Amino acid sequence: MTPAELSRTVLRSVRGAVEEQELSVPVPARIVVQPPPRPGCGDYASNVALQLARQAGRPAREVAEILRKRLIGSAGITRVEIAGPGFLNFTLGDGAQVALVREVLAQGDGYGDRSVRGVGGGDVAGPGSSPDPDPDPDRGPDPGPDRGPDPGPTPSARDVVVAEALARIQAAAGVAAVDGGQVAPVATPPDLTALIARLGVDEARWVLLRPAAQDPVRVPERPVQRESNPRFRVQYAAARARALGRYAHELGFGSDPGDVGAPVRGEAVGEGPSDGSVSAAQNLQTFHTLLATYPSAIETAARLRAPDRVVRHLEATADAFFRWHDVCPPLPVGEQKPLAVHRARLALAEAGGTVLANGLRLLGISAPEHL
After folding, report:
1. Number of H helices and number of E strands within the chain?
2. In a domain, 318, yes or no
3. What pLDDT sits at residue 266?
4. What is the rounded CA–CA span in Å between residue 326 and residue 343?
5. I need a surface site. Which of 67, 231, 329, 333 has the fewest CB within 10 A?
6. CA-wise closest residue to 354 among 100, 58, 107
7. What's the CATH code of the domain at 30?
8. Which of 48, 69, 92 is the last residue of a domain?
9. How many whole angstroms separate alpha carbon 41 and alpha carbon 282?
10. Angle made by CA atoms 4, 285, 349, in degrees to the nearest 5
């Protein structure tokens, strides 16, 4: 189950409660689900009950309980819990994680590239505007008002982010052109030319795209090719994921999505509880969530004209990849023979590498095979 599918499932539960008069509220256009603020609180959370409580004239936890009962047993949802003043926390089934890996690997370069609804001619709603609702298969198409001739194909989120990234660079450091995903100075002021000459194309783009629009650009003296540099760390994680596939091939096995499991005998469990199980589970949950939310991160970046959101998502994904990889290595340790769990971990690592490479290319930054 993807975040968009979970959102639609929760929306259907609200609509059902309204239709059966358990709740008397306007049905919202869209339900927002997002990773919980703390590990161990499920895979996703929603504050929909708090949003509906005032309109319903009932306590938020009471509204949450109505929705919880309707959501229990829904396909793909293992557990629904109420937290705090009325948050709904969702734990998805193990099959959802395997399905996610299969989806990422199947879509490959196309994962995360989808249309932005309601955006025509490259226009995107600016900051502070309400996002368009996700399509709901239970409802018929909304004909809407007569808007005249079809404005043409809807741009993908990827196209919008690419255009906005170039606009951000132009605004920050003069006029540049994109040629094959690389920045090529065209009659540029000396500052941009010097920046590219000093830092290289990849670091220059990262430096200009990493800050939010209202934040200053901080230019390093020179690029640092080590993990303390976020750009290098993301590129290194993407390259490491590819290298794992090459090493596995040399060992005579390939990837196969499945249960990645907890640390097995002979593996270092790193920091955390003595058996490493909680730390491993939390790392895995965070990593899966970041892979699942990559498409929505791209869509949000397009709607808000904020390529820096893509940068932050890639940094978080690379960090989660290394934390999980270090606790549950995809390759056998020592004399250990390849097991089914290693094939599953390799598939997850490849999915992570796919997301990181897609995001880097989206920003016009290289995703090298070797680093």
Report:
1. 12, 5
2. yes
3. 58
4. 16
5. 333
6. 107
7. 3.30.1360.70
8. 92
9. 10
10. 95
Q: How far is 320 from 308, CA to CA, in rounded Å? A: 18
Amino acid found at 243: A
- The sign of the dihedral angle between the CA atoms of 181, 370, 252, 338 is negative
- For residue 288, the Cα-to-chain-centroid distance in whole angstroms is 9
Does any domain span residue 295?
A: yes
Angle at alpha carbon of residue 261, lines to 257 and 262, rounded to 5°:
150
Q: Is residue 314 part of a domain?
A: yes
Report the distance separating Cα 95 and Cα 75, nearest Å.
Answer: 10
| pLDDT tens figures, 19-60 | 999 999 999 988 888 878 776 678 889 999 999 999 999 999
Residue 355 · residue 296 · CB < 8 Å:
no
CA-closest candidate to residue 347, choices 106, 113, 111: 106
Q: Which are the contacts of 196, defined by CB distance < 8 A and separation ≥ 6?
A: 183, 185, 204
Q: What residue numbers bound the domain in which 335 lies?
A: 230-263+277-363
Task: Report in angstroms the alpha-carbon separations of 243 from 248, 252, 328, 331, 371.
Answer: 8, 14, 16, 11, 9
Q: Which residues of 234-250 are buried (b: 16+ CB within 10 A; e: fewer)?
A: bbbbbbbbbbbbeebee
Q: What is the pLDDT of residue 268?
A: 53
Tokens describing residue 82: 């109420």
30 or 188, which is more confident: 30
Query: Region 352-363: what's the mean pLDDT?
Result: 95
Question: Of 49, 73, 92, which residue sits at a domain end?
Answer: 92
pTM for the full model?
0.73
For CA atoms 55, 57, 58, 60, the dihedral sign is positive
Task: Look up residue 100 and give its amino acid.
Answer: L
Determine, yes or no, domain membership for 352.
yes
Domain count, the chain: 2
**The CATH number of the domain where 324 resides is what?**
1.10.730.10
